[in-house]
Amino acid sequence: MSTQTLDRTTVNGFTGALEEMAWAEERRYLASLARVRVEGCIRTIDQLIEELELMNLSNSKKVPTEWQPKLDNLVPVLPFDYSEQLHAGVSTVRLMDQLFTIQGHLLDLKIGRSQEMAVADAAIEEEMTAWAPIRN
Prior knowledge:
Blueprint: H1 8-57, H2 68-74, H3 92-111, H4 115-135
Helix pairs in contact: 1-3
């Protein structure tokens, strides 16, 4: 078959293959953007936790009110809905717990663990904790 006599099926096949390649490239690009977003959030939370740990070690038990803009800027960039409010003025330990929870969700996203799996694991862990005193 010469290039001048390509039939409609062959042309449609080439077009379909090119479209599929373009879609695959777009999916790869969007996945890389999501990965960068998750990794950026993890780094930000790591920095916040480190600062909170230092505060806690230096006997600063409350998060300074100056932190509120940092916390307000964090929640909207998270790649999932986070319904709890992050507040300055609470204990450093409470805010660290909240940030560790957020970071756990981010790490689940990074490794591709589904939300359903995380909920199931949490339920199993809760059940095991409930049975722990009975076994001892």
